[in-house]
Amino acid sequence: MKIADCINGIGHLGIIVPELDKAIDFYVNKFGFELFHKKLVIDPLDGAINVAFVKRRDMILELFTPMTKKNEILSRKDGILDHFAIDCGDVYKEYKSLSKRGLKRHASTPDGVVNYEHLGCKGVIGVNFCGSFGEVVEVCSVGARDYNGVDTMQGWGHLAIKVHNLANTITFYKKLGFRQVGDGYVDTPYGRLLIAFMSCHGFILEIIQVCGALIDDLDKRGAGHIDHFALDVSNINEAYNCAKSEGLKILNPVIKELSLFDCGIAYFMIKGPDGEIIEINHIKKF
Question: Could you count the other beta carbons within 10 Å of the beta carbon of residue 36?
């Protein structure tokens, strides 16, 4: 068995925030997420962590505040995990609606909605907003997708990772069960950004190879506002053993546990080629 055989798909996206209740309020009232779990948990190494999970269709965000790391949280900026996107049938309509709700456009799309005509086979339309504490949230529409008349925001669009070497990153994520489903490019003042889309059980990664002066920016990035993303597995012990045997960079000497949800969770972290953090997660059942 390989670790790719253990993975069932996306679990959640982890966003580290300095004030949990404000972040919850932001995603519930601005983007229509629903709060479904909130708890103070104790990690043996990190101490007390306030955690909340909010959901919009198939997209789950883990908002969390480690109580002993507030200075570190406030110092974080954009990370290797660059932004996440909510799928939407009519981006122009949602752009107007979200703007009326007071959302601020992110500097990456200062003029509003952008048509990325060279992404995928029929292009992508998107606009980026500032999230609760600096994370970048995109609302996007895929030209090749049939939305069947549904024009509002849906669930997962994609998660974007900025990388040094596209080929190396594609090879890595294939080990986790992803397959390439599209490609494209975006021309910028810094040069052409090459892009690949990879899918695992319907969850899409947008992998962006940076160039020019953007390489210097990427070299300064580490874990940012978007801290990690979690892939769910049915058997955490099998997944851990597979990760070890396949030579993946495991950040935990042992499988960790937290008392979240009804029966708790078990997990470990691995690192991707550019230092992005991937949680391998199992939610315990009765």
Answer: 11
